Amino acid sequence: MSTPPGVTGRLPNRAGRYMAQPTGYRAFSPAPLPPQPPVRLEGELQALLSKADRALGRLDGSIQTLPNPDLFVFMYVRKEAVLSSQIEGTQSSLQDLLAAEARILSPHLPRDVDEVVNYVTAMNYGLARLATLPVSVRLIREIHERLLQGVRGARCTPGELRRTQNWIGPGGCTLNEATFVPPPPHEVPEALGALETFLHADSDIPALIQIGLAHAQFETIHPFLDGNGRVGRLLISFLLCQREILVKPVLYLSHYFKRHRAEYYERLQAVRDIGDWEGWLAFFLRGVASVSLEATDTARRILALREDHRARVTQGLGRAAGNGHKVLEHLYQRPIVAVADVEALTATSYTAANNLVSRMVELGVLVEATGYRRNRLFRYQAYIDLFGEGGEPGQGPGPEP
């Protein structure tokens, strides 16, 4: 492993130790959190924590100024789902996910789009579950089950902790050639139990530091045969919401992890190899601050777009403006619609709905998405474009087993 730039020190057994196993390979046994000696929360790391806290506060405030914030969470969650899945090698884009959810039966949709759909399902399930169940081993297993149901990795016992050894490394490598070997399976329940205890214990460790530590520890434990990276990134969102740092899950942190994917993995490995918790936490906090500012700007642009399009509908649709506004609000939660959807939404005839959609196309609000004469679908493309694609999809599989 190449040493990441700016490592802060070498304490090889600080995060745990590599232990020889009966069959000859060495697996890593993580030490319980918090790290010993404690994280040095001073200097640059203290400044980065303050910056990340401020940026998250701005993001949370900007989302709450949006009319009906729940409408806009839809796309933030989907952007995170796409990017987190792309880190692990999926080819599906945000457009593909929205098309799949709108039931476009196209041979051109990537086969792995169902994995991204599952990520959205797991995210929404977990957020709802937090009302009655805190972040815990039980919740993590329930999330994993939904993440892998019926997709690649479904044979890897969804929802069940692994009973065999896994490892991370180049394709085709053996245990002895692996970049990293997580703890042997018999240690996994205890290690996860210790992580749960850390998350629930009274502590004066700042919440963002706790969350950064927990993500790295989960990735080190690697408790499942597949899906560990995605579950670990979901864990960040759940903890931010459970701790009420964010009221809504609008931080697509996978954008930063994907953009700096090599350093992401190197920083995690430096924790294990040389105990560099401070280097990992600095990287994590930079990501939180960077993506928070970007997501805040997205909220600002959503508000500007909404005002512009409300004005177009009011001025351009005359007596149909009321139904036009109904459609416009619906598009923030479902940005791809068919005429039949508009017919049901407005309780009008198919002809009236078709005319309304045609006029919204003329106003530049909707764009025809299929090129068909019948069974056409229409995208709220300007809104989708605010979320972009976050980088090039499909850069090859990452190390998530």
Automatic annotation (TrEMBL):
EC number, UniProt record: 2.7.7.108
Record domain Fido: where: 135-286
UniProt-annotated catalytic positions: H222
GO MF term set: AMPylase activity; ATP binding; magnesium ion binding; protein homodimerization activity
PROSITE patterns membership: FIDO
Keyword Signal belongs to the record: no
UniProt KW keywords: ATP-binding, Nucleotide-binding, Nucleotidyltransferase, Transferase
Positions bound to ATP: E88, H222, D226, G227, N228, G229, R230, V231, G232, R233, Y264, Y265
Reactions catalysed according to its record: L-tyrosyl-[protein] + ATP = O-(5'-adenylyl)-L-tyrosyl-[protein] + diphosphate; L-threonyl-[protein] + ATP = 3-O-(5'-adenylyl)-L-threonyl-[protein] + diphosphate
InterPro entries, sorted: Fic/DOC_N (IPR025758), Fido (IPR003812), Fido-like_dom_sf (IPR036597), Fido_containing (IPR040198), SoFic-like (IPR026287)
Enzyme class: transferase
Annotated Pfam families: Fic, Fic_N
Role played: Adenylyltransferase that mediates the addition of adenosine 5'-monophosphate (AMP) to specific residues of target proteins.
Complex formation: Homodimer.
PANTHER family xrefs: FIDO DOMAIN-CONTAINING PROTEIN, FIDO DOMAIN-CONTAINING PROTEIN DDB_G0283145
The protein, known as: Protein adenylyltransferase
